[in-house]
Amino acid sequence: MDAVETKKALELLASRLTTLSGILDKSEAADGANLDDLAAARLAEDMHPLSWQVSAVCTQAQQFLDWCHGEEQPNVVGSITGWSAARGVLADTLAKVNAAAAEEIAAPAEKRITIAQMGVYVDLTAQRYLDDWILPNLYFHLSIAYAVLRMKGSPLGKGEFMQHILGDLRPIPAEAQA
């Protein structure tokens, strides 16, 4: 993945981290008194809580960023609890990804992912690593975070989830609507 493609990937990750931040902002404004209860909420009993889902989104972005810098981190999501811890991890990750997007870095050509607890690994090209590993995992945990907040009554709509595209919307001219 060349520097231009890597920059686009980092900008995409930053955009989705910003989406998560906006979702949390709106939920915080609506339910400011019970934020740690909200951070502990789960979509289902056998799923991780909201704070972990935020950490998982950040882990995907951080793993891509570390890989671009020739570093590795284990395929493990850090365990965080509480609203302020989740917000802190998100703010820190977003700042790092935004800073990296301003650099000229190129992602390595290949990535090996080892899932030790399953005793397996997979070798992927850079593009497949982004398309088939990082983004699906990021969107999964972003969707779960959104769903937990909706379940708990946060006034979120699809617009908050799709805020990255809202600036591109244009009105249809009246003559084209006829």
Work out the oligomeric state of the chains in this entry.
Answer: single chain
Q: State the total count of DSSP E strands.
A: 2
* Measured distance between first and last alpha carbons: 46 Å
- Structural class from helices and strands? mainly alpha
For CATH, the homologous superfamily is named as dinb family like domain
How much is the radius of gyration in Å? 18 Å
> SSE order in H/E notation?
HHHHEEHHHH
Looking at the structure, the CATH topology is Four Helix Bundle (Hemerythrin (Met), subunit A)
Largest sheet report:
2 strands, antiparallel
Q: In percent, how helical is the residue content?
A: 55-70%
Q: Reading side by side through the largest sheet, how are the strands ordered? A: 1-2
CATH architecture annotation: Up-down Bundle
Shape: globular
Specify the number of helices.
8
What does the average pLDDT come to? 91
Please state roughly what percent of the residues sit in beta strands, choosing from under 5%, 5-15%, 15-25%, 25-35%, 35-45% or over 45%: 5-15%
Number of structurally distinct domains? 1
User: What is the CATH class name?
Assistant: Mainly Alpha
